[in-house]
Amino acid sequence: MEAKENIQKTQQEAVTALSNKPSDNAILAVRNCIDKGLVLPSNYSYVNAIKSSIMVIAEMRDKEGKSPLETCTEMSIRTALVDMAQKGLDVSKGQGYFTKRGNRLVFSKEYHGVTTQIQRMYPDYTPIPRVIYKGDEFEYATNPETGRRMLVKHIQKMENMDNDFVGAYLYIPCRDGGRDLYIMTRKMIEEAWKQSSNSSQTVHKRFVDKMVCKTIINSALTPIINSSDSLLSENAIDTAEDERDYVVNDQANSKEIDTGSVNYIEAEEVSVSKQDDTPY
């Protein structure tokens, strides 16, 4: 029993040692960006977000049972953490996820993160996606002066919700205080699903309505967030420059970091015990 406890203690110490450097350097990189003008939400703690998210990374496992802390470059782990923090998000809160691509770790926003970001821009806005099923009466119109769409009617019987979906819609906010109706057809949604690293689309088939809602939220709101002229978006370049500075410093002090060619392969699925695989 004592030997087993010693092994577990040693493993935990090894994980802690592997996670400390990329997380600490990520915190320094973000702090440097803030000194250069990066503005983060007042209620967002990038230190807490990075510290909690590195623990999520430590729990991730690939098909061989190894953590990204063992198989991914330290630079890519640090960059993923900085990318997350620069967007004001937190993986431990389900606002994004990490994916292993070859020997690199990358951060991607989840729809919870998209919702968080859009509500920072439009505090009074709440995305309410609606799925259109076969048999529904759905009609919309386009304002000839503005080009914006509006819902005319959507009549849905409860039994229709057991039918195949034919599309979805979502009102999106506009800068002038108005709103526009964003619509996606089934074909458009399925094309988006084909971009998933999960070729079998298991989750999509099990939770069709939830995945439809997730997809239209991401598709409709991400362009608005990306086109924002806020400092939160503009400082992406500063973050990248700071990361290169850290790479130079690390190479000067360590022989373990390899910044040579990176092998890009299709995203490999990893398991994260804290990640909810039934979105929305």
Write the layout of secondary structure elements.
Elements: H1 2-35, H2 46-59, H3 68-71, H4 74-86, E1 96-101, E2 104-109, H5 111-121, E3 130-133, E4 137-142, E5 149-155, E6 165-173, E7 179-185, H6 186-193, H7 202-206, H8 208-226, H9 231-234, H10 236-253
Antiparallel strand pairs: 1-2, 3-6, 4-5, 6-7
Helix pairs in contact: 1-2, 1-4, 1-10, 2-4, 4-10, 5-8
Describe what you observe in this structure.
The structure is a single chain. Mean pLDDT is 79; it is low at 4-11, 13-17 and 231-280. Helices cover 46% and strands 16% of the residues. The longest helix is centred in the N-terminal third of the chain and has 34 residues, at 2-35. α5 crosses α8 (208-226). The chain has helices at residues 2-35, 46-59, 68-71, 74-86, 111-121, 186-193, 202-206, 208-226, 231-234, 236-253; strands at residues 96-101, 104-109, 130-133, 137-142, 149-155, 165-173, 179-185. The chain has a three-stranded antiparallel beta sheet with strand order 3-6-7. Strands 1-2 form a two-stranded antiparallel sheet. A two-stranded antiparallel sheet has the order 4-5. The chain is globular, with a radius of gyration of 22 Å. With 280 residues, the protein is of the alpha+beta class. β4 (137-142) and β5 form a beta hairpin. It contains ten helices and seven strands.
Low-confidence stretches: 4-11, 13-17, 231-280
- Helix/strand order: HHHHEEHEEEEEHHHHH
Strand content: 15-25%
Please work out how many helical segments DSSP would assign: 10
* Helical coverage, percent range: 40-55%
Radius of gyration, in angstroms, nearest whole number = 22 Å
Integer average pLDDT: 79
Number of strands: 7
Specify the biggest β-sheet.
Answer: 3 strands, antiparallel
| Spatial ordering of strands, largest sheet | 3-6-7
What general form does the structure show? globular
* Through-space gap between termini: 43 Å
Class from secondary-structure proportions: alpha+beta
